[in-house]
Each structure stands twice: as C-alpha cells, then as structure tokens.
Design goal:
Length: 311
C-alpha cells in the first residue's frame, strides 16, 4: 500500500472561529507554481494603494503566499521569504522513485521536504492566529469533491497541512492523507482561481489574481522541463475550461480579474522571482487605475473595518 504524508489534527484552540462576518473585500490568489511569486507584487501594490483586504482565498502557491501574508507579515518579509523558495528548498528527489519498481511510488519528489519549507515560512501560525481570515482548497481523490479549509469552513487541519494539501501537485508531491481517511491533492485541479468561493463567503467586491498558464500552441517552454513540464502542461490544459466559469462568476460581484503577464516563465522557474514580483505589482497598479475598475472602486466599504488589519 502506498504511504502518504499524514495530516495531524488541529487542536481546538488553534482553529479559526466559525462565527465570522462576511468579508467585504476578498483577495483571491490563484495557483500557478512559481509564477505565483507574482502574488507578492500584487500585495505590495494593494498595500501601496491602501486597498483594505478583509479575507484571502488561496489555491496552491496562492495558499502559501496568502497564508504568509495572513500571519501579519510585511511586504518586505514576504519578499525575503520568496528568496528562500529555491529549487533546493522545494524539490528533493524521492530516491525510491528512481529505483527498480519506482513507478509504484506516489511522487518523484519528497513531500515532507516541501512541507518542512511551508513550516519554516508560516509556523507557528494557526488559522485562529491569522490577522486576515483565510480559506484554501484541495481536491479529494476519494470522490472528486473540492474541500475548503480555514475560516468559517473546515478547521480540522493545521494551517501547514492545509497549505501543503492545496499545493500537493500530483506526481510532483505525494497526496496528503487526512484524519478522516480522505486523500487530497492540489486544489488547482478543481479550482485554479477561487472566485466562486469568495462569492460564497459573501464578498462584496473581489480582486482575483490568475497566474495560471495561458495555453498556446506556440508555447514550447514546458518541453525543457521534461516529465515535470509535461505534467504541468496537462494540468493547465485540464484547468482551461474553468475560465468560462470565472468569466461568468465575476459579473455577479464587482471584480478586478487580473492576469499578470507571467506566461513566459514555466511553472518551476526558480530564477525569476524578482521579475515575477514586479509583474504582479505593475499588473495590479495598472488595473486599479484603469477605467474598467470603476465598479470595483464604487463598491469600497463605508464605515468601520470588518477585521483587524496589518500591512
């Protein structure tokens, strides 16, 4: 039987309260592997523009960046953390996968190694200690359902385990076994950009950041990454139909749906973090200034803040 990393139960005193108000402005950070470093530039632009964020919805790399900011980290701390997200820190070969019979292994890279990196970045934070409420998703391999963890939803996982589950890309990292026996993988396989979850949460306006790959026939950058690149390409192709749902959903709530121009970088590019951060910053700065953002700005909150905030 395959052995997967096993999630630990979240202590009751470390669980986020289920009695929280619907957030007014929700930041949705989508999946996209290392292209998600652009999310840090997004946050820098929002802080500069004094856009108050009441809650965060994150998928995969968006879950990691969102969780770190939700702990109360500054933009400077986010950028310092990003420098530590190196290939060596993220990817450690599962040597058993390279031996005879290795195809029976659950992944080609070691999941505990990646989970240790998440632990170093966001521990000792818990869902209850976050200064901004957070929800992250994962995909159940038991029944194909999407599972959301965090504020106001399922709080049985620790913050570290929930973030790991959201980014447990099949083949790359092993799935996570939950205390209830379910086995989950990267939430981006079901929802790459959690816009609908922000709406379900009660958002009055949304900033949705999509750093997933735009599928074009001329793009061959993924071919340079071999098996990992091929797998990433398949994941992105499967995620493509989600765009129609996002397009329809964003008409229901004033939404800034922003796609930073990061498509030229393959999923596992560890050498372009400064450039990715800058692209995220510029994309949000321009979107906030564009005439099309009028409905978003007109939906700005009036009155006291909903949650305690820290830049």
């Amino acid at each position: 039987m395959l052995r997967f990393p096993i999630a630990g139960l979240c202590p009751a005193n470390a669980q986020a309260s289920s009695q929280i108000h619907a957030p007014h402005t929700v930041l949705v950070l989508g999946g996209g592997a290392m292209r998600g470093m652009a999310h840090i530039g997004v946050i820098r632009a929002l802080v500069d523009a004094r856009i108050q964020i009441d809650a965060i919805v994150g998928t995969s790399i968006g879950a990691l960046v969102g969780a770190r900011w939700a702990t109360g980290a500054s933009v400077a701390e986010l950028e310092a953390d990003a420098r530590d997200v190196t290939e060596q820190a993220v990817l450690k070969r599962n040597l058993k996968a390279y031996m005879i019979g290795g195809v029976a292994q659950p992944s080609i890279y070691d999941g505990e190694h990646y989970r240790d990196l998440i632990q170093r970045i966001i521990a000792p934070a818990t869902f209850a200690s976050l200064v901004r409420p957070l929800r992250v998703n994962a995909l159940s391999l038991r029944n194909g359902d999407e599972r959301w963890f965090g504020s106001g939803v399922d709080t049985t996982l620790t913050l570290v385990d929930a973030v790991y589950a959201s980014g447990a890309i099949p083949l790359i990292f092993p799935p996570l076994m939950l205390p209830d026996g379910d086995i989950v993988v990267d939430g981006g396989l079901k929802t790459m950009v959690g816009l609908l979850e922000a709406i379900r949460w009660g958002a009055r306006r949304i900033i949705a950041i999509d750093v997933s790959e735009i599928i074009t026939a001329d793009d061959i950058a993924w071919q340079r990454q071999g098996l990992v690149g091929i797998h990433g390409r398949v994941v992105q192709i499967l995620a493509e139909p989600q765009r129609a749902f996002i397009q329809a959903a964003r008409e229901r709530v004033p939404t800034l749906h922003i796609r930073p121009p990061v498509n030229e970088w393959p999923s596992f590019t560890f050498s372009a973090t400064p450039e990715l951060i800058e692209e995220g910053y510029l994309a949000v700065r321009d979107a906030l200034a564009a005439p099309s953002s009028a409905s978003f700005h007109s939906a700005a909150p009036v009155g006291p803040a909903i949650v305690k905030r820290k830049a």
